[in-house]
Amino acid sequence: MVTAAAGLTVGLATAASAAVIVHGPESVVDEVPTANLEMCGNVYVSPDSAVEGATVTGNLYNSTGNLVTGPYQDETNSGGGWCIQGDATLADTIYNGGYVTVCVDPAAVNGKPFSFLGSGSDCVDIYEAEFNSHLYADPFNLIVASAKDIDAVAN
């Protein structure tokens, strides 16, 4: 894990990705946060074929649109999952009018463009309302203020 001084931490791949791999049907494994202030999702080809090796990038911006931290990247795993780990600065920035821009690369697979959260784009801005609509909490493991199901789907 790499920690940014003011905002996000992400798991970086240990080796360079050779190529994006689209796995067979029913290969998506729902990625869920394992820590506080973590944003997670999946990248897949509709309906449920996981995309491994895609790069998800996140940048944190304040309410005036100035970059706070980033870019930070994570590569999707064999279930299509990715997670970006934030600290208190991430939540404070989002809840004070800031946002996180999350993008996937490549922008398309097998000629099908990705759409994050139904936005029609391979990038999406996560503001407070969107973050709140994807909140994830696990009181048993004391996980709070995290978000899941921030998915990019190629249709």
Structure notes:
The protein is mainly beta and 155 residues long. The protein has one domain (2-12, 23-154): Immunoglobulin-like. The chain has two helices and 15 strands. It has helices spanning 88-95, 128-133, and strands at 2-3, 8-10, 21-22, 38-45, 49-52, 55-61, 67-75, 81-86, 99-105, 108-109, 112-116, 123-126, 135-138, 143-147, 152-154. Strands 1, 2, 3, 4, 5, 8, 10, 11 and 15 form a nine-stranded mixed sheet that branches. The chain has a four-stranded antiparallel sheet with strand order 7-6-9-12. Strands 13-14 form a two-stranded antiparallel ribbon. A hairpin with a 4-residue loop joins β1 (2-3) and β2. The chain is globular. The chain starts with a strand and ends with a strand.
Q: Provide a count of the helices.
A: 2
Overall mean confidence score, pLDDT: 86
CATH topology-level name: Immunoglobulin-like
Shape: globular
Low-pLDDT residue spans: 1-17
Structural category is mainly beta
Taken together, the total number of domains comes to 1
Q: What is the helix content?
A: under 10%
Task: Break the fold down into its secondary structure elements and pairings.
Blueprint: E1 2-3, E2 8-10, E3 21-22, E4 38-45, E5 49-52, E6 55-61, E7 67-75, E8 81-86, H1 88-95, E9 99-105, E10 108-109, E11 112-116, E12 123-126, H2 128-133, E13 135-138, E14 143-147, E15 152-154
Keywords: Signal
Signal peptide: 1-18
